[in-house]
Structure to design on (283 residues):
C-alpha cells in the first residue's frame, strides 16, 4: 500500500509512476515554469488575481522561450506527464495562498491533444478542490475529436475548473469552439493588444463586444504600456497581463508578491509598484 502526503487541496502518492514514465521518455529536468501575474485593473490601481504558468527550457545555461521548443515538446508523448508533474508541484507550493484566497486562479496551457478523459481522471484523483485551476486551450493545433473534447471539457467544468481559449483570433477555430464548448473566458492575443492604443482596433473591438455579450471573462495579454491598459479599461477589459505590470516570475517570487498583497489587504493598505519591486528583489 502506497503512503501519501496529505494536503488540504491535494493528495499525492510518494511513489509516482507517471513521473518515472516521464524520466524514461525525456529529460524533464531541463524544463521549468515561470508565472506571469494576471491582475484586476481599476481606476485606483491593480491587484493580482491569478497567474499563468509559462514553460521555459534551460539549455547550456540559457533559458529558452517556448518558440524555440514548444512544437517538438507538444509532439512528444511526455508532455502530458510533464504538465501533471508541474500542476502538482504548483499546488503544493501555493497551498497556503490558495487556502486563504479561494478566488485565486493558476492557468496552465494545454494543447488539444491533452483533452483526454485520462487527464480528467488524474485531476479527480489528485485534487479535492479544483477551483484554483484554470486550463487555457492553445490553438497551435486543431481539435480533431470534438465529441471527446466536449465530454472532457464538460467534466472539467463540473469540477469547477475554468476553461479559457488562449490567443483568440490567432489560431484555429476559436469562434467555433465558443459555440461547441463550455468556455469560461478568452485570452486576447498580444498582437491585438499592441494595436489597441493606436486606433487600429476595429477587429478586436468587435471581438470584445461579442465576448461581453456572451458573458465570458476576458484577459488581455501582452500589456506593455499605460496607454494600452487605459484603452482596455475603456472597453471594459479589467483583467490584464503583461510586462507593464510584471514579467514572468519564479514561483517563489510570485508567492512573496501574493503574501505581501494579502497582508496589505488585511491592514487596509494600498500596494504600489515600488513596494512590489522591493518585495520581488528580496532573496
Amino acid at each position: 500500500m502506497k503512503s501519501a502526503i496529505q494536503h488540504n487541496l491535494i493528495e499525492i502518492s510518494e511513489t509516482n509512476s507517471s513521473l518515472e514514465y516521464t524520466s524514461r521518455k525525456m529529460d524533464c529536468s531541463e524544463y521549468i515554469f515561470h508565472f506571469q501575474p494576471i491582475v484586476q485593473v481599476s481606476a485606483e490601481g491593480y491587484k493580482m488575481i491569478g497567474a499563468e504558468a509559462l514553460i521555459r527550457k534551460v539549455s547550456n545555461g540559457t533559458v529558452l522561450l517556448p518558440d524555440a521548443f514548444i512544437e517538438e515538446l507538444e509532439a512528444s508523448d511526455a508532455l502530458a506527464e510533464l504538465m501533471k508533474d508541474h500542476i502538482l508541484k504548483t499546488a503544493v507550493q501555493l497551498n497556503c495562498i490558495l487556502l486563504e484566497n479561494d478566488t485565486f486562479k493558476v492557468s496552465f496551457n494545454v494543447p488539444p491533444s491533452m483533452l483526454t478523459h485520462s487527464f480528467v481522471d488524474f485531476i479527480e484523483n489528485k485534487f479535492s478542490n479544483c477551483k484554483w485551476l484554470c486550463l487555457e486551450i492553445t490553438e497551435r493545433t486543431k481539435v480533431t475529436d470534438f465529441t471527446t473534447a466536449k465530454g472532457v471539457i464538460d467534466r472539467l467544468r463540473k469540477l469547477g475548473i475554468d476553461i479559457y481559449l488562449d490567443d483568440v483570433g490567432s489560431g484555429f477555430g476559436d469562434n467555433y469552439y465558443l459555440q461547441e464548448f463550455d468556455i469560461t473566458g478568452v485570452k486576447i492575443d498580444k498582437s491585438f493588444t499592441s494595436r489597441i492604443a493606436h486606433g487600429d482596433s476595429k477587429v478586436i473591438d468587435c471581438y470584445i463586444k461579442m465576448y461581453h455579450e456572451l458573458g465570458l471573462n476576458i484577459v488581455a495579454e501582452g500589456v506593455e504600456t499605460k496607454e494600452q491598459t487605459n484603452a482596455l479599461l475603456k472597453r471594459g477589459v479589467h483583467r490584464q497581463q503583461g510586462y507593464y505590470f510584471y514579467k514572468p516570475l519564479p514561483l517563489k517570487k510570485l508567492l512573496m508578491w501574493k503574501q505581501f498583497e494579502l497582508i496589505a489587504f488585511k491592514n487596509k493598505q494600498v500596494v504600489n509598484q515600488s513596494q512590489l519591486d522591493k518585495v520581488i528583489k528580496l532573496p
In short: The first strand starts at residue 4 and ends at 6. The longest helix spans residues 251-266.
